[in-house]
Amino acid sequence: MLTELKREAFEANLDLPRQGLINLTFGNASAIDRVRGIFAIKPSGVDYAALRPRDMVLVDLEGRKVEGALQPSSDTPTHRRLYLGLAGIGGIVHTHSSRASAFAQAGRAIPCLGTTHADYFNGAVPVTRKLTPREIAGAYEWETGKVILACLGRRDPLDFPGVLVNRHAPFTWGVTVAKAVEVAVALECCAHLALMALELAPRLAPLEPGLLARHFQRKHGPGAYYGQRKKT
Length: 232
Prior knowledge:
The protein is α+β, with helices and mostly antiparallel strands.
């Protein structure tokens, strides 16, 4: 079972450069086995081209390395904090994709300006507050996870499957790590479209609530009808 978990995390990590979301060794993906309370994550600083499934590092929800010859990603505490705080998610992705990171660095949420955005996010993609000097000097990565959770507040994490970390970059998640990768791709697309739309129309208003709700709900929730239904 844990071999399969490593494979899922490995495939997700390889998808990041394939999708143009990664430069150098920035970013990482992880997948969790909720029954065992163990997640698999990319090793720190290893080039994506050199990755193998056996390189994925297993970490438990107490932060202990369970298996792996290499050190886990430096962002492991952020992933762990999110897994502890968001019970319904099965995978997390962190990238430094250019346009989404530009919004993050500017400390600006990505506004929902069109239906492409509404297919994945039930409103603007939120941005966290800045970390304090004390948080930065202390358990920085753990505190990053905490500000993400505080930013989400009472929002449903599957309605808002991603957050921009102020001055940093995006984190996305999903019920599986493959879904978290898909959201990361969509997030970068939404950021790109928002930048272009605001260049054309700087005073463009957010998408009308009714249109936002229709597009989001046709893909998500009990009334969703987009795509093919699974045979029972």
